[in-house]
Each structure stands twice: as structure tokens, then as C-alpha cells.
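quick one before i forget lol
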Amino acid sequence: MVLVACQNTFSQAYQATFGLSENPTVVFFDFIVEFLFLLDIIFTFFQEYKDEERVVREMRLIAFRYMKGSLFFDLAAIIPFDLIKPLFHYKPS
């Protein structure tokens, strides 16, 4: 996931600078990367963690810990940039 995250960071920066690519291969690869991020979010809801003295396997506690922790950042990572860009585009009147 670290390699995918690095690729996504550089790809988003490139597309923000030079515009979105219409090459089908690049579009498909970006879709695969976004899908992998979505799978990571889903799998994290099922991933046990070690508490101070025990291993927590209860789904409710795992989900609550993840929602309090990094769920917001993970969701922000999969929002397509081309949907957000028009919201911040400055048009002088």
C-alpha cells in the first residue's frame, strides 16, 4: 500500500499541474489505485489490534477505533481530485 500511496501522490500532483490524462491506460490504472484504497478501508474494519494487555477482536471496538482514528484521512484519499477541483476554481468576474 505504501508504493500505491506514493504513486497516487505523484500522479495526483502531475494531474493537478498538467491536467487530467485521457489515456485509457492511465485512467484504468488510477481506477485500480482508488479501488485498492477502498479495499484497504474495508479490510481495516476487520483488522484486529493489540490493546495494552489483550488482542481486540470485537468488530464494534475495531470499527469505533478506526472511525476515531484514520478513517477520515483514508476517505479523503479516495475522493477523486477531478470532483473537488471545480469547487476551488477561481473565476474572476
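fyi The chain has one domain: 2-88.
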